[in-house]
Amino acid sequence: MLILRSQSPRRKEILQSLGLNFQILALPIDETSLHQETPVSYLERVTLAKLGPKSEGPEDIILASDTIVVFQNKILQKPADESEAISMISELSGKTHQVFSGLGIMTKNQKIFDYDISEVEFHPWNKSEILEYIKVCKPYDKAGSYGIQDPNSPAKSFQGSYSNILGFPIRKFFLYHTLWSRFL
Predict the structure, then answer these.
(1) Phi, psi of 62 (to 5 degrees)
(2) Backbone angles phi, psi at 72, to 5 degrees
(3) What count of other Cβ atoms lies within 10 Å of the Cβ of residue 76?
(4) What DSSP state is assigned to residue 182?
(5) Can you tell me the distance from the alpha carbon of 14 to that of 19, in angstroms, rounded to the nearest whole number?
(6) How far is it, in rounded angstroms, from Cα 32 to Cα 164?
(7) What is the pLDDT of residues 140-160, one digit of tens each?
(8) Nearest-angstrom CA–CA distance, 73 and 38
(9) Beta strands at 23-24 and 61-71: parallel, antiparallel or unpaired
(10) Which fold has domain 2-183?
C-alpha cells in the first residue's frame, strides 16, 4: 500500500493526477522551527518526522512532504492569522523568494529525504491588493501566505517546478519511481 502522510489537498491532487492508488493517513507533528535552523535542516527534520513510524505492512511505502517559503534565509510558514498573512505578503511584494519542498519516502528498509527549490517573483502589491487577496483566497493553510494557483495570485513569475511551488517536488519523486511505480 502507498500511504500519504499529508492533509494537503494539493498533494492529494498531484498524486491522483499521476494515477496512483494511495491512502491518506496524516500524523500531527510539531512544525516549530528550532533556533538558528537552516531552511534545509528544518525541511529535512519536519519531512522525515511526518513519515512517522514504520508501517505494519512489509510492502508499504510511506510518503511525506513539507513546503516552506524562504526569503533572505528566513523561513515563512503558514500564517497564524490575517495580520501575519498581510506581513508576509507585504515582505515578499515586488521581490523574489524561494520555495523549498521536501520529499520523504520510507520503505521497510530505508528512509529517503530529497528536496527541490523553485523561485517565485511577486507583483509589487499595495496594501489594498494584499487585503483583497487575503479576503478572497484565505491563504491560511499555505506557506508564505499565498498559493501560486489562486485566482489573482501575487506571483508574477517563477523559475523551476510548478508542482514544487504547489507543495510536492514531483521531479524528485520521479527519481524514486522504482519504489512506487507498482501503485499505478
Answers:
(1) -110, 130
(2) 50, 45
(3) 21
(4) G
(5) 9
(6) 21
(7) 999 999 999 999 999 999 999
(8) 8
(9) unpaired
(10) Maf protein (3.90.950)
Sorted by where each begins, the domain ranges of the chain are: 2-183
Tell me: the pLDDT tens digits for 11-43? 999 999 999 999 999 999 999 888 889 999 999
Evaluate whether 56 touches 3 at the Cβ level (below 8 Å). no
Q: Residue 182, Cβ neighbours under 10 Å: how many?
A: 11
| Alpha-carbon gap, residue 70 to 77, rounded angstroms | 9
Could you say which of 30, 66, 116, 150 is catalytic?
66
Measured between alpha carbons, how far is 103 from 110 in angstroms, rounded to an integer?
Answer: 14
State the pTM of this model. Answer: 0.94
For residue 129, the surrounding DSSP H or E stretch is helix 127-137
Residue reference for cell 491563504: 139
Please indicate whether residue 141 is annotated as part of the active site.
no
CB atoms within 10 A of CB 171: 16
Backbone φ, ψ for residue 109 (5° rounding): -110, -10
